[in-house]
Every structure is written in C-alpha cells, then in structure tokens.
Design goal:
single chain, 82 residues, mainly alpha, 2 strands
Length: 82
C-alpha cells in the first residue's frame, strides 16, 4: 500500500516538473543539443525562482514521506511490543 502511494506520488511530481519545464521551454523542448553535448536549454528562459520552488517542493515531499515511513515502522514496532 505504501509503495503504491509512493509510486503515484513520484509519478505526479515528475509530471508537474516536466509540465513546468514544457511551459517555460516551449520553443526548444526539454533538451537542446549544444557544442558541449547534452545540457539544459542554453537560453535558460526558466526563472531561477521556478528551480528553487521545485527543489523545495521535492525536498519537503522526501522528508514528509520519510517521516511517514518511520511513523508506520514505529507504530508496527510498538504494536509488536505490546
């Protein structure tokens, strides 16, 4: 059950991330080929604020999810102890 919730959550996060990138990188697509090989669009039309928000959202989700896993683990441990 927890794994299913995790998979759906990760899938939704990836969808949101690519949606934001596709909105901001419309003329070029996600990747563009440059002289230095594959790198994120050289024009960087995406404002730095978007990256900060995305990093904070992902970081918070990771910590909340870890907290939930620990909570479930300790609840099971507590029930076994009783």
């Amino acid at each position: 059950m927890v794994m299913v919730i995790a998979m759906v959550h990760i899938f939704l996060l990836i969808l949101i991330f690519f949606r934001i990138i596709s909105i901001t990188h419309r003329p070029h697509g996600l990747w563009s080929i440059s002289t230095s090989g594959w790198r994120l669009c050289p024009k960087m039309s995406m404002p730095i604020g978007y990256w900060v928000i995305m990093i904070i959202i992902v970081w918070l989700h990771v910590w909340v999810f870890k907290g939930l896993i620990y909570l479930i683990y300790f609840c099971r441990l507590y029930q076994e102890m009783r």
